[in-house]
Sequence to fold (712 residues):
Amino acid sequence: SEVKKIAVIAGDGIGPEVVAEAEKVLKVTEEVFGYKFETEHALFGGIAIDEKGTPLPEETLDICKSADAVLLGAVGGPKWDTNPKELRPETGLLGIRKALGLFSNLRPAVVFDCLKDASTLKPEVLEGTDLIVVRELTGGIYFGEKFRRQSEQGEEAVDTCAYNVTEVERIARQAFEIAAKRRGKLASVDKANVLETSRLWREVVIRVAADYPNVELEHVLVDNCAMQLLRRPSSFDVIVTENMFGDILSDEAAMLTGSIGMLASASLGEGSYGLYEPVHGSAPDIAGQGLANPIATILSLALMFRLTFGYEDAAAAIEAAVAQVLDAGHRTSDIATDKSKAISTSEMGDLIVAAI
Amino acid sequence: SEVKKIAVIAGDGIGPEVVAEAEKVLKVTEEVFGYKFETEHALFGGIAIDEKGTPLPEETLDICKSADAVLLGAVGGPKWDTNPKELRPETGLLGIRKALGLFSNLRPAVVFDCLKDASTLKPEVLEGTDLIVVRELTGGIYFGEKFRRQSEQGEEAVDTCAYNVTEVERIARQAFEIAAKRRGKLASVDKANVLETSRLWREVVIRVAADYPNVELEHVLVDNCAMQLLRRPSSFDVIVTENMFGDILSDEAAMLTGSIGMLASASLGEGSYGLYEPVHGSAPDIAGQGLANPIATILSLALMFRLTFGYEDAAAAIEAAVAQVLDAGHRTSDIATDKSKAISTSEMGDLIVAAI
Ligand SMILES: CC(C)[C@H](C(=O)O)[C@@H](O)C(=O)O
Ligand SMILES: CC(C)[C@H](C(=O)O)[C@@H](O)C(=O)O
Fold:
């Protein structure tokens, strides 16, 4: 079959360790399923600041653009936290999203059986929770004009939040498509009782809904959604929302599953192009010690196979392998009840490879 | 002693019922403690739209302005939800906050012993949770310029978020004062890695912190805060944040206590002036049936005594009376385990009055 090009960005902290395990999985998938991949590594985030003087070097962007998909580990760390804006890993993150046109961020929040107890929610409340947050990723207050000015009450800072019909429509359409393939329920989250952008959002979502008569749509105000996620998490199927609200709600949703360290995410653009990364961060405190859990990154690769390449067989095989290894009781230290029996990052990777 | 003037706004839904019980408590406080109150009722919200054609009539504003404090029941309901903006209860709410200069919204989130089990969080996680969210209430994206314009990608909506130094400083100072009188811990929540307003916010908070060396300050990103509230709610003491983030986080915090129906809130301006209201809404579905729980409104009155009038004795007496009635097992239907034994709104009010 055709050779697929994957840009691999290891990044900072535990990024290189978890990405290395995902690459082992990539290799075994080639052997088992006959797919062909070509990987190219690129610098991004803190390490790119150190080595190239910018979080998002041109070369990295070129590598990503010429690839079919991007696999990202994690970026950031205290070392760069006090840098000026242009020299911060987050700036690279926002830059790459915009430059690659990744307007949609999917964060499935599911409960792993072996991690049920890690949640702070009661098991009976968590039961059956399986939702996905579809977050708009290249618009809103993240990318609007920002500036300072003098006011009569001292210096003033301004952020601008803007959304146009096209931006809302494409993310709404994608969320409806996803909901139609799942349990057919979509919650559109806004603050239409206060914000003009939210009123536009709601108008467009209602218009798009006409094309999806089988998807049940509800509008939820963002403050109410923050509450309902706590009260009835299992009643949500797909949640679609704008950039800033999505940042907050997707983290809340991920945390309540108790499985945050194992969750995968996808950032998609037009067509099948996508960037895939674990939901967890770069965890600089445990970097380089073989303590990191590579499962979220490996599952992000599975998501890439499913969403970008349409390799459902390989995606399913990876997910099954992960489940099998967990069922057999293997745990990295972050999810181990008995830390003394915890296995290392590469041992976990090897077990998953063997199971595939 | 001096006569204190209280503007009473019953509002919509269950508003009139719960406010009536708080007024009974007001009367008995006069008798027991010798304080003198003068109340004046005013129309606001949905009922004001129906009777006066505007959610916030001039007359109501005058009554509030000439009073020392405002007691508010609840506003809003489906009847007005599809009205144009100027004819919606929320517009009145935003208008009254701005007109009265209520720049600070305090929402204490505490766990009532009798409601511990109502939370979806595990009891051991909830244990000891007692926090207060200090939300900036008259600035940010709520009050910035809003408009529509044509763009190349269709109609575009814009909201503007602005904060100046004075606005941030006064709310920060108040939050530090509150933290200093509590457990001495302040979490300032922002999105300084993305927003210019958040960077200004953080700069000012750091500057104000110099005046409060005994308060331990941490900066928490809003997405992380949404997670940490779930993971370690009891570790928070005071949380201070801007308007939009405060809307979301205060609702999340209230919901995780399981006691949302019993929580009081205060909106304060310069000096001792304040507006006090329950955190819960107007609950139109149960309005007029004597089913509403008046405790949150009665506790809002206690907060008024403490924060606006400095009547700590009366505030403490009301809180003790509420605790005593609950300890004795009395419940309105919203908090009753055995609904058949539930008492009515006015029975609950009478019991609290008797206990004072
Ligand atoms: C690091 C930060 C800029 C980023 C965001 O806010 O989008 C992160 O929180 C995320 O959710 O990916
Ligand atoms: C009704 C709405 C405008 C209001 C707000 O967003 O401030 C409400 O949610 C609140 O928190 O008091």
Observations:
- Chain A has two domains: 1-102+269-356, 106-262.
